[in-house]
């Protein structure tokens, strides 16, 4: 199984409530995925800065680490995760330092606005640990996991980062992920875990590295990825949705003047404001949907 | 709740689906608790599943999976959309949904009537065994897959592979059919079929509004019924 949610706000007035709404959606999807949960929120950011989402073992001294990175590095801690905010020009240098001085810290996401959190446990507990309900932003996606293809670990939880300000959540299972993984490794794309969804994320990253847009990369996946999937992909400016050609995994969308929302089931959308009068529909199989702030 | 009154209200914001269904399952033939109004369904699953009494259940809003599943005798009216498997394996009675429904509507249903006001998703009427399904909108891909008996009437269009590996169900479609599945063919509309279609219009309460002549009939070419030696290499 697994549950996916996504919320893209059109109405600025709702932005302070993004985390609260997303948290409610995520919690309702616990029945579909009680093993672990994760989410990515697109909040405040500056074009000349980059945010790195770090993950470390329980009780890690993030403040001590930040002190080693020199001036101009901001730190915001949330349980096992921390956000480093730094001048964009220093990203490579800071990543190098992290690799040297903090081998047990993983950079799980990067971008000007994206923050990415995931952990093992019930979705409501994960949301509370990371204080999701307090977060504001323009859009976010989330995932509740019922593991099928690999172990229940934080590394196996979603979202998976696919590039700067990009991440993916997946409901389904890929049957050719071993083959795709080997092809990606030959192309120089490293896959960290045994997880099939990480392969999908790596695949999209690779297509985009080869010059394809995100929409085109999703189109490509229809030919190259075999199995069941509903993908929701978050980007700096919006989110995309794709279902496999036989629409094996469920998906419901709702749109009002205030937002576009995605849920694996309607239940996840039932608490959103004005849902009674929303346009509600199921995305068609093998069709790429996109909501983009730039285009809106 | 007083079993001697005829009308009951049930609010799913304050009580569980399990409690609702337990109360409905306790009803027997001859019950006079005939009308149940259910508020705040919020897409919850298995609402009014497994009923076996001649009652009417009105659900005010969208429901989740398997609403009205395994229904016998009851009339279930949904004023909203429905999720996967509405009226799955219905035996008799009637399930009516005002809005769209998700995949596998009326799957394996043996009898009764399933009336859908909007569109149905993929695999509508999969393996249907005698139910009469009327969809006022369109149906998705692989509808009536392995359909064995009953009728599927579609006022709009049908998606890919309609009636794949169909047995003896009858399919009536007014709009376009994206493609027919294996062993499904268009068949002649004779008077008996126009009559049957008119009966389905009555079932959906739209008789007089539609012309049976606008519909095409599809059914089994019956070439998959028996092993054919020429196909041996395909196995």
* Global Rg of chain A: 18 Å
CATH topology of chain B: Pectate Lyase C-like
Assigned CATH superfamily of the largest domain in chain A = Aminohydrolase, N-terminal nucleophile (Ntn) domain
Strand order of the largest sheet of chain B: 1-2-3-4-5-6-7-8-9-11-10
Overall number of domains of chain B: 1
Structural class of chain B: mainly beta
Q: Largest interface by residue count?
A: A-B, 15 and 20 residues
Q: End-to-end span of chain B in angstroms?
A: 60 Å
Q: What is the terminal-to-terminal distance of chain A?
A: 32 Å
Structure class of chain A? alpha+beta
On the 0 to 100 scale, the average pLDDT of chain A is 93
CATH class placement of the largest domain in chain A: Alpha Beta
Keywords (chain A): Glutamine amidotransferase, Transferase
Protein name (chain A): Amidophosphoribosyltransferase
GO molecular function (chain A): transferase activity
InterPro entries (chain A): GATase_2_dom (IPR017932), Ntn_hydrolases_N (IPR029055)
Provide the descriptors you would attach to this structure in a database record.
heterodimer; A: 296 residues; alpha+beta; Glutamine Phosphoribosylpyrophosphate, subunit 1, domain 1; Alpha-Beta Plaits; 2 domains; 7 helices; globular; B: 235 residues; mainly beta; Pectate Lyase C-like; eleven-stranded mixed β-sheet; 2 helices; disordered N terminus; oxidoreductase activity (chain B); Protein glxC (chain B)
